[in-house]
Design brief:
CATH class of the largest domain: Alpha Beta
CATH superfamily of the largest domain: NAD(P)-binding Rossmann-like Domain
Largest sheet: 7 strands, parallel
Protein name: UDP-glucose 4-epimerase
Pfam families: GDP_Man_Dehyd
Bound molecules: nicotinamide-adenine-dinucleotide
Mean pLDDT: 95
Family: Belongs to the NAD(P)-dependent epimerase/dehydratase family.
Shape: globular
Structural class: alpha/beta
Length: 391
């Protein structure tokens, strides 16, 4: 039987870059995506470049929320293939929206994930998590090591949730979790340390992702599921071909917004706060190339498939950029003006969010290779040749 790797959300931004790399490595891929934010044009591109569906990849348009449809899709693939691993990207990703529509985020990100876990036994799984797990950390903790969270919990730093105002309180998210997950599968029960971990994120999106990390640990205990949770902040850039790239609707990420401003598609870039304690007063964030992400998701999956133990790793560059540095990099690459408007600080925006990625370097030998200039130039190649994205 041929082995195949399942990529949920494989028609989306990061997922499509991972799928392309897998296909280039002649690895057969099973893309599971409901196309709520993914793009049919990506699938057309794969078909044209790597051969008709059955030869290189299988695409099933279905939703992780449709438990029966998910099981049927997996069974149909299993007739002729052995699913050797899963890389899971299917999620709702807009932090601001998650505060307004917590139930949508909880349902897709947590209930959908529950269904995926329960439909796929103990197949090794790489979960795209988020550095939102670190909430709004103290400056002394930057760059963030994975060990900061156990340290925060041991220090009992957060005896209550740090969630910023959302349309429901933290307790409601836990009630939903109990009803949708624990009542059906009691082994997913949250203990005191789990709740303290869940107190750290400042947005609903972050809470849903931390819940998934906790569920993975519990599923390993219950069913021996090997897993890898990869935490990162800002994915950016595009495949060097310029043929696939970032197209979120609406776009909320800085690099594409800045490039859209350079093209006149966005009127101006609002910079929230220029009085932070940073070299130019604007916030520092960690940008990681989508190509580096594609490499490392595959390395991580191979590690657990070959018997390596479950891990949680930060992905990052150990080196952040200020908002103004991103704008300057984009001006240099595009040779165009980027209109900027200064505004006050946004609530909950920490001065700096930078991941320390030395643990994955030490244990798996992976390190991000691409710097900000390469990220911005590759993104520009994509945006300038696709001014309306995939449309
Ligand atoms: N973009 C970033 O900067 C970033 C940073 C950290 C973590 N992440 C995580 O990486 C993953 C991918 O992010 P992205 O930027 O590629 O987002 P994206 O929106 O481009 O991709 C998500 C994909 O999942 C699909 N999907 C959503 N809900 C689904 C469901 N219920 N069933 C089936 N398919 C579904 C969408 O159609 C889309 O193709 C997400 O899990 C996100 O939380 C992203």
């Amino acid at each position: 039987m041929n082995d195949i790797i399942m990529v949920t959300g494989g028609a989306g931004y990061i997922g499509s870059h991972v799928v392309k790399l897998l296909l280039e490595k002649k690895q057969k891929v099973f893309i599971f995506d409901n196309l709520s934010a993914g793009h049919n044009q990506v699938l057309e591109f794969f078909k044209k470049t790597y051969g008709a569906d059955a030869d290189s990849f299988i695409f099933i348009n279905a939703d992780t929320l449709d438990e029966e449809g998910l099981r049927k899709a997996i069974d149909s693939v299993r007739k002729n293939h052995w699913i050797s691993g899963i890389i899971d990207f299917a999620a709702k990703i807009a932090v601001g929206e998650s505060q307004q529509k917590p139930l949508d985020y909880f349902t897709t990100n947590v209930v959908g994930f529950r269904n995926l876990l329960m439909a796929t036994d103990h197949i090794p799984l790489v979960k795209s998590s988020t550095a939102a797990a670190y909430g709004s950390p103290l400056e002394e903790d930057i760059p963030l090591k994975e060990s900061v969270i156990p340290k925060m919990i041991a220090a009992k730093r957060y005896d209550r949730s740090q969630l910023l105002p959302a349309s429901v309180p933290f307790e409601t998210l836990i009630e939903w979790y109990t009803k949708e997950v624990v009542e059906k599968y009691p082994f997913f029960y949250l203990d005191k340390a789990d709740l303290e971990f869940l107190h750290i994120p400042v947005n609903v999106y972050g809470v849903t992702k931390v819940i998934c990390e906790i569920m993975l640990k519990k599923h390993e205990k219950e069913a021996g599921r090997k897993h890898m949770a990869l935490r990162y902040f800002n994915a950016a850039g595009a495949d060097p071909s310029g043929l696939i790239g970032e197209d979120h609707i609406p776009e909320t990420h800085l690099v594409p917004l800045v490039l859209k401003a350079a093209m006149g598609k966005v009127k101006c870039i609002t910079v929230f706060g220029d009085d932070y304690d940073t070299p130019d007063g604007t916030c520092i964030r960690d940008y990681i190339s989508v190509m580096d992400l594609a490499d490392v998701h595959i390395i991580a999956l191979n590690y657990i498939i070959k018997g390596g133990g479950s891990r949680t790793y930060n992905l990052g560059t150990n080196n952040g950029q200020t908002v103004m540095q991103i704008i300057e990099a984009a001006k240099k690459v595009t040779g165009r003006n980027i209109p900027v408007e200064m505004s006050g600080r946004r609530e909950g925006d920490p001065t700096a969010l930078v991941a320390d990625a030395s643990l994955i370097k030490k244990e798996l030998g992976w390190k991000a290779k691409r710097g900000i200039d390469e990220i911005v130039s590759s993104a520009w190649k994509w945006h300038s040749s696709h001014p309306d994205g995939y449309k």
